[in-house]
Amino acid sequence: MKPTIRFLGAAQNVTGSRYLLSVSHMNILIDCGYYQERDFRYRNWEPFPFPPERIDCMVLTHAHLDHCGLIPKLVREGFTGDIHCTSATADIAKIVLLDSAHIQEEDAEFKKMRHRREKRKPPREVEPLYTTEDAENCLDYFMPHRYDEPVIIGTDIEITFFDAGHILGSAMVQFRIGSGADSRVLLFSGDIGRYDKPILRDPTVFENADTVVMESTYGDRIHEDKDDISTLLANAVNDAKKRGGNLVIPSFAIGRTQEILYRLNELILADRIPRLMTFVDSPMAVNVTRVFKNHREMFDEETIDLLNEKHSPFAMSNLKMVQSVQDSKAINHISGTTIIIAASGMCTGGRIKHHLAHNIGRPASMVLFVGYQANGTLGRLILEGGKEEVRILGTYYRVRAEIRSIQGFSAHADQKELLDWVDGIKKGPGKIFVTHGEPHAARALGELLGKNNGRDVVVPEYGDEEPVF
Predict the structure, then answer these.
(1) pTM to 2 decimals?
(2) pLDDT tens, 260-292?
(3) How far apart (Å, rounded) are the C-alpha atoms in residues 399 and 3?
(4) What is the set of domains in the chain, with CATH numbers?
């Protein structure tokens, strides 16, 4: 039986990453992510399209919610295999999954109260998708590994994790299927990072691959120059100070928050911005930042030098890491300009919604987006500016704050970087599956990859099953 892949998520959309690799005697799930787009969120509640008890093991590329967020549900519904990942991914996934469960329980209770108040029958989504207990139960299945060390997961099936340069612990996973001279290489890119980014090392370049499954989040665009990122951030901070309002930054707790702190610290040391009071108001981001401190072996040389010189971006004198709800609420009573960094990055949950509710109607405030906003998310609605009002926590607010965006912060490679990464594979690939991108982005990248090189390029749809080789 020839190996096949079923595309059970992140197929012409950017969340819900999930691929089922079937190799003769084994079923291997690569990622098990949560859908964040409004149009696809119903899939989180549907039964898994493949019986969880028949999955032999799972391979996790990294710990973002859209790659790991349905693992508690998978385990609750029958999965009992190992979850292979890097050590930092295991550490961060624990934080992410417990935080996700807590937020879902809180959101469910909030919705129940609102429906009782409005005397309406609640929909099924009022119950949490999974509980804190479900999240805790799945943690024992994680099996951490180091980069660059081959791991045998089945007869004639070997995996190796390589640095993806996306977030701390993120990996590209090389599958070697078969034995000896007959073996073939299947490469899952995971989310491909960027070159010359702060803190993390560059994405791995490979010698050979027969087939590649790769992301395409920014397959149709080019990011701003990295020097422009610092200038745009400095301008936002300085303009917010002049306006007298708060600078609210919706940010992913993993990677993005830490990079923002790095760049703010860099601007302060260069005397390009004032030393404003800065709050990281996300228990998950606070805990993830602690994980960063424990994995210096994954940092690039520049960050190691900065730490050795005692200029850690995670220990700025003006930085306050917020844990409690009381301290979070207290931020709203501070006069003058503060910088508020809060999750989630797409404004789909978490404390950022409360800060938006407090600031989005204030002309003096500014909301600065520093990452991709998926279609249908609150962040996309605000960023596109198509509506004078937005609904936050059940209440409509007029958008009076200034809205800005810096796309170059993205931890995803842009179109040129994606093409360069593929072209860097010295031998192959003969086949490429383009995933994890909205339809226009995935198709644009697919067209470029397929031009004048004889590659078989496929942009799969949800549910498609394809031969690997």
Answers:
(1) 0.86
(2) 999 999 999 999 999 999 999 988 888 998 899
(3) 51
(4) 4-221+411-467 (3.60.15.10), 226-409 (3.40.50.10890)
